[in-house]
Amino acid sequence: MSTPHNSAKKGDIAETILLPGDPLRAKFIADNFLENPIQFNTVRNMFGYTGTYKGKRISVMGTGMGIPSIGIYSYELIHFYGVKNLIRIGSCGAIQDDLNLYDVIIGMGACTNSNYAHQYNLPGTYSAIASFELLEKAVSVAKEKNIPVRVGNILSSDTFYSADDTEVERWQKMNILGIEMEAYALYCNANFAKVNALTILTVSDSIVKKEETTAEEREKSFTKMMEIALELA
């Protein structure tokens, strides 16, 4: 059964899926890490592939930018295609001065300035957290591969260009490691459906140091987080 955003049929997608924001990063992973990858989606050029990695079936699919986009794709993957483990692999802007370009961050929790959780009509503020099962395994894999990681809280922002030039400093004071745009919705959707989700990020730019990587580097060079995520199948 296809959806308005995904042409895959039931069974085309593995129970574990990697979710880069950039569909070209999904293609890069399929081409360079998966054995016998088969493309299951091209709708809106949001490429999706299923193959095997070290004998285990795994999928990868782009999600686009922002909470609304990953909210749609992750919901459909969970409820229409039976995905059980959703691992976002993305980029972020570091806001702590001890983080450098290419450092890997694992998002234990996600704060947000989005109103995404309003749909649940909760009587308070919802803390969106990762699956401990995936988090624990990812940290273990990183240690085995000798890949340094930082585990902590991240911010999923609705705004890339903010009119408030003081907000980063305030999030810094709350020990937020980096800013991205998708994890909060992924964690909400996964927790509501009682499945597993995790966000693994590579620092693509440092907001405090005014450093950044190129688009090509973001597409093809962030391989350490990919190596960690692929072992979670």
Key words describing this protein structure:
233 residues; 7 helices; alpha/beta; 11 strands; 29% helix; five-stranded mixed barrel; Rossmann fold
Notes on the protein architecture:
By secondary structure, the protein is an alpha/beta fold. The chain has a single domain, classed as Nucleoside phosphorylase domain (Rossmann fold, 3-Layer(aba) Sandwich), CATH 3.40.50. It is built from seven helices and eleven strands. A five-stranded mixed beta barrel has the order 5-9-8-6-10. Helix 4 links the parallel strand 8 and strand 9. Helix 2 packs parallel to helix 5. One of its GO terms (biological process) is purine nucleoside catabolic process. This is Purine nucleoside phosphorylase DeoD-type. GO terms for molecular function: purine-nucleoside phosphorylase activity; uridine phosphorylase activity.
Q: Which stretches of 5+ consecutive residues score pLDDT under 50?
A: none
The description of the largest β-sheet is: 5 strands, mixed, barrel
- Strands in their spatial order, largest beta sheet: 5-9-8-6-10
- Described by the principal axes of the CA atoms, the overall outline is globular
Provide the CATH topology: Rossmann fold
Query: Which structural category fits the helices and strands?
Result: alpha/beta
| Tally of separate helices | 7
Query: What is the CATH first-level class name?
Result: Alpha Beta
- Report, as a whole number of angstroms, the end-to-end distance: 24 Å
Secondary structure: helix percent: 25-40%
| Count of the separate structural domains | 1
- What is the name of the CATH architecture? 3-Layer(aba) Sandwich
